[in-house]
Amino acid sequence: MKYNTETNSIDLLGYISELSTFRALVMEESTWKIITKKSPKATGKTRRQKFLSDLTALLEKKDKTILQQPYDYVLHIELSADENNAIISVQRSTTYEYIFRSEIIPLSGKA
Predict the structure, then answer these.
(1) Is residue 2 domain-resident?
(2) What is the Cα–Cα distance from 25 to 18, expressed in whole angstroms?
(3) How many domains are contained in the chain?
(4) What pTM was estimated for this model as a whole?
(5) CB environment 51-76: b (16+ within 10 A), e (fewer)
(6) Neighbour tally for 93: CB within 10 Å
(7) Radius of gyration (Cα) for the chain, nearest Å?
(8) Which among 75, 101, 104 is positioned nearest to 87, based on CA atoms?
(9) CA within 20 to 30 Å of 68's CA: 7, 53, 59, 104, which one?
(10) Is 9 domain-assigned?
(11) In angstroms, rounded to a whole number, what is the distance separating the alpha carbons of residues 66 and 92?
């Protein structure tokens, strides 16, 4: 969702189907554009595929129930200041307790 200041209403945005099962996804619209930006050296996996693969691995490592019941969690995705890393946080949707905060996923081809 995005608040539209021109119409004073909330617009629904068609975000990422792979992340639509979470209770909420907190992310700037420009963040997803940067995450999915095509690299001039792109071979094999795209940045989007690599990011989603790395995100899945991170969530499995932290707590397997996040992927089993994603509707119970709020996923936060931010960018680092240099836009080379995604910063991931997950919190429970009922108690707002953070499961983890500020885990880094590199957006470049380097791990």
Answers:
(1) no
(2) 11
(3) 1
(4) 0.79
(5) bbebbeebbeeeeeebeeebeebbbb
(6) 14
(7) 15
(8) 104
(9) 104
(10) no
(11) 9
Q: Which domain holds residue 78?
A: 14-106
For every residue of the chain, DSSP letters joined together read -EEETTTTEEEP----GGGTTSSEEE--HHHHHHHTPPPTT--SS-HHHHHHHHHHHHHHHH-THHHHSGGGEEEEEEE-TTSSEEEEEEEETTT--EEEEEEEEE-SS--
Of the candidates 84, 85, 81, 88, which has an alpha carbon nearest to the alpha carbon of residue 102? 88
**Is residue 68 a part of any domain in this protein?**
yes
44 lies in some domain: yes
Q: How many residues does the chain have?
A: 111
The Cα 71–Cα 21 span in angstroms is: 6
